């Protein structure tokens, strides 16, 4: 069955890819589970190395947590990853350049701390307040780094002053960045993560990933039910799906730790205890996002930027007030608050988002709201969260999650990365690393 990739279409690429929904190959070199960034990069690398693969995806689309939707005609909103972290060093920057996809390279400075905007109780901080706020940020980051260097893999809440006047925006940044509150985030894991927010894609990071992956053969709507790697013979790995059984020489599992921990995939041969420990100690954090579209430019010449906002009533969030120039804003919230707000429903999320934008731009913006999109990552069945966050004392588990089981069952994804954890490019890199390991195991010259 042939399908035109809508995301390739919006970029004028009109690439056609095969969604082999009806006739999966029953025997292959490598069975790849999950068509997110890691699964797609692994497929491309395996093909480059001369190995065959069958890539199966449980949902109706490719891209995983890289997913863009049109908030309004021609206005794209990233429900998942939104920044090409690291900017020029991010591999998707080169990919975008090669595909002719526009990035916000000239706007990236607006996401840096020097240009970050802080609003408290509906008003910007004074110069003195801002200086005190930045000083608290710097002191907190230094305390986290010092703990990590000393080998103290503890909760961030143990090393910073969570009662400080300017703790609320800092904690909100942590919750948004990790999807967990400060008492659940590891100092070592935080310290090893690298990269500035970088660039955005005008038509969405998810659209970029979908266009890049449009030439990969994928069996969509193909949920994996069971993986058994105990068989004899060359093709001793067997993966049972809702559409039939596939046999391979190796399997690469790229699903999230949320899916791995759910028990929805039966690992028939039994995962070793060290692998189960890794999965359980890399739980999924949640960052939810709300896209708000307006019928006019409500930002004005000076309103576009990246904001941290909070009030003394306990409401806090982050806003990307459309640095890309469209009439839309993205509101971010993470951790327990994000999960709680998700459970309250879409109207509650809409109200929270519009209230936060009004905190910055004034109540007049309310009458110009035309549409909102809200995410619900903690209950999204194919992921069950936004990204893996190492529990305090468990940062080392990323390496264990990446380790191969019995030289046949391989793992990849952002959760396996140290440095690129929680990022789309980290997942991309993990897929390439896994593909090369598989090729080496199968005695293929890399």
Folded structure, characterized:
The longest helix is centred in the first third of the chain and has 23 residues, at 127-149. The radius of gyration is 22 Å and the shape is globular. The two termini are 32 Å apart. Helix 3 (91-99) packs across helix 7. The chain is built from 13 helices and 20 strands. With 446 residues, it is α/β, with parallel strands linked by helices.
Question: Which secondary structure elements does this structure contain, and how are they paired or packed?
Answer:
Elements (H helix, E strand, L loop, with lengths): L1 E3 L1 H5 L5 E3 L8 E7 L3 H12 L4 E4 L11 E5 L2 E4 L12 H9 L17 E4 L2 E2 L2 H23 L17 H12 L8 H6 L12 H8 L11 E5 L8 E5 L2 E10 L3 H6 L3 E2 L5 H8 L3 E2 L1 E8 L11 E5 L5 E5 L7 E7 H10 L1 H16 L7 E6 L12 E2 L8 H6 L6 E3 L12 H18 L5
Parallel strand pairs: 3-4, 3-11, 7-15, 9-12, 11-20
Antiparallel strand pairs: 1-2, 5-6, 7-8, 9-10, 10-11, 13-19, 14-17, 14-18, 15-16, 16-17
Helix pairs in contact: 2-13, 3-7
Q: What structural keywords apply?
A:
single chain, 446 residues, seven-stranded mixed sheet, alpha/beta
Given helix and strand content, the structural type is: alpha/beta
Number of strands: 20
Taking all Cα atoms into account, the compactness measure Rg is: 22 Å
- Taken from the alpha-carbon principal axes, the silhouette is globular
């Amino acid at each position: 069955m042939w399908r035109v990739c809508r995301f390739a279409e919006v970029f004028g690429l009109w690439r056609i890819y095969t969604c082999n929904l009806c006739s999966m190959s029953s025997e292959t070199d490598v069975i790849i589970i999950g068509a997110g960034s890691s699964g797609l990069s692994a497929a491309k690398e395996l093909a480059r190395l001369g190995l065959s693969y069958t890539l199966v995806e449980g949902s109706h689309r490719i891209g995983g947590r890289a997913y863009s939707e049109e908030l309004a005609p021609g206005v794209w909103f990233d429900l998942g990853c939104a920044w090409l972290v690291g900017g020029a060093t991010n591999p998707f920057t080169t990919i975008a350049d090669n595909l002719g996809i526009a990035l916000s390279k000239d706007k990236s400075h607006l996401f840096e701390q020097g240009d970050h905007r802080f609003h408290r109780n509906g008003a910007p901080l004074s110069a003195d307040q801002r200086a005190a706020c930045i000083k608290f940020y710097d002191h907190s980051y230094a305390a986290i780094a010092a703990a990590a260097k000393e080998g103290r893999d503890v909760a961030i809440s143990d090393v910073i002053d969570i009662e400080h006047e300017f703790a609320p925006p800092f904690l909100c940044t942590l919750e948004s960045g990790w999807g967990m509150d400060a008492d659940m985030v590891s100092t070592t894991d935080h310290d090893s993560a690298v990269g500035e927010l970088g660039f955005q894609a005008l038509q969405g990071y998810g659209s970029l990933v979908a266009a890049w992956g449009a030439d990969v053969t994928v069996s969509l709507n193909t949920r994996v039910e069971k993986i058994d790697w105990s068989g004899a013979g060359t093709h001793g790995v067997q993966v049972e799906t809702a559409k039939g059984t596939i046999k391979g020489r190796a399997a690469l599992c790229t699903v999230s730790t949320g899916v791995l921990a759910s028990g929805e995939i039966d690992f028939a041969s039994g995962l070793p205890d060290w692998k189960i420990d890794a999965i359980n100690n890399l739980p999924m954090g949640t960052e939810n996002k709300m896209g708000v579209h307006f019928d006019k430019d409500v930002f004005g010449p000076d309103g576009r930027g990246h904001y941290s906002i909070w009030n003394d009533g306990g409401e806090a969030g982050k806003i990307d007030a459309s640095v890309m120039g469209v009439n839309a804003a993205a509101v971010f919230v993470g951790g327990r608050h994000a999960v709680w707000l998700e459970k309250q429903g879409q109207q509650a999320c809409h109200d929270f988002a519009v209230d936060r934008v009004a905190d910055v731009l004034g109540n007049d913006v309310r009458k110009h709201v035309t549409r909102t999109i809200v995410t619900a990552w903690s209950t999204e069945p194919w992921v069950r969260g936004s990204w893996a966050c190492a529990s305090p004392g468990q940062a080392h588990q990323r390496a264990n999650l990446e380790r191969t089981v019995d030289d046949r069952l391989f793992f990849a994804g952002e959760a396996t990365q140290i440095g690129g954890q929680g990022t789309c490019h980290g997942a991309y890199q993990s897929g390439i690393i896994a593909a090369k390991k598989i090729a080496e195991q199968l005695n293929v010259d890399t």
